[in-house]
């Protein structure tokens, strides 16, 4: 099986018990933690910042934390997440004035860097900076909220991103985010994704271990 990673989005967790929730999904078999940062400016919602990331580290979480920045500007806050314990920091190219500089800034802080593509954003942004990218994140919903419906044109975009990544020769992860469920995870894997964000599908399920197990069974088909 390919090196698939399941990344539960804590946006759908019970924030009043966040430490326990993150421990529970990791014990249930999740590979990393997807950490959605929204600023009520770039996207119409407001979530969590570096203090919460740091609090998870202090709680004893050692798994990779995959910080998805839906904020503008990016450069001011990205280093704070690196210091707070992030492993991956991804941002939306439209939210940065100087994309090359932001990618380098994230790497200079010791993190893996990535670009996030909204449903209507072209993959052309990758062309001149692919050597500075560790993760490509394809949004299969418009960013801002959990629990939205998967937008099927993301499948073609995943295939295109997979071609670009393979042609580049760089070890770049291809992540999909938005509306991922047990019944479509295999389809997105077939289209080229290797990292799967799932928020509501996991945190709103009765049993995290069963749900993650069923996702892995789909990926093994
Ligand atoms: C949306 C976020 C997603 C979201 C996914 O802006 O980036 O990570 O939490 O939630 P589901 O899996 O419920 O679509
Ligand atoms: Zn996300």
UniProtKB/TrEMBL annotation:
ATP-binding as a keyword of this entry, yes or no, is no
Residues given in the record as a divalent metal cation binding sites? 34, 36, 68, 177
Per the UniProt record, one Pfam family is Ribul_P_3_epim
One MF term in GO for this entry?
D-ribulose-phosphate 3-epimerase activity
Catalytic positions are 36 (proton acceptor), 177 (proton donor)
- The superkingdom listed in its UniProt entry is Bacteria
Give the matching InterPro entries: Aldolase_TIM, Ribul_P_3_epim, Ribul_P_3_epim-like, RibuloseP-bd_barrel
**Which HAMAP family does its entry note?**
RPE (MF_02227)
Q: Report the function annotation for this chain.
A: Catalyzes the reversible epimerization of D-ribulose 5-phosphate to D-xylulose 5-phosphate.
**Which PANTHER family does UniProt cross-reference here?**
RIBULOSE-5-PHOSPHATE-3-EPIMERASE (PTHR11749)
- Report what the protein is called: Ribulose-phosphate 3-epimerase
Lineage at the top is:
Bacteria, Pseudomonadati, Pseudomonadota, Gammaproteobacteria, Chromatiales
């Amino acid at each position: 099986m390919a090196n698939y990673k399941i990344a539960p989005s804590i946006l759908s967790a019970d924030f009043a018990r966040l430490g326990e929730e993150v421990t529970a999904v990791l014990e249930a078999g999740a590979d990393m933690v997807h950490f959605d940062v929204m600023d009520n400016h770039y996207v119409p919602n407001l979530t969590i910042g570096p203090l919460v990331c740091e609090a998870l580290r202090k709680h004893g979480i050692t798994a990779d934390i995959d910080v998805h920045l839906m904020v503008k500007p990016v450069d001011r806050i990205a280093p704070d997440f690196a210091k707070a314990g992030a492993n991956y920091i991804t941002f939306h190219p439209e939210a940065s004035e100087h994309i090359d500089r932001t990618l380098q800034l994230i790497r200079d802080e010791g993190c893996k860097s990535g670009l996030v593509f909204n449903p209507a954003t072209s993959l052309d942004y990758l062309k001149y900076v692919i050597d500075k990218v560790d993760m490509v994140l394809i949004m299969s919903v418009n960013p801002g909220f959990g629990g939205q419906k998967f937008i099927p044109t993301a499948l073609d975009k995943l295939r295109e991103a997979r071609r670009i990544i393979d042609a580049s020769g760089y070890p770049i992860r291809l992540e999909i985010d938005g509306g991922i469920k047990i019944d479509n995870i295999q389809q997105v894997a077939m289209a080229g994704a290797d990292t799967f964000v799932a928020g509501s599908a996991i945190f709103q399920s009765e049993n995290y271990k069963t749900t993650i197990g069923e996702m892995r069974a789909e990926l093994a088909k």
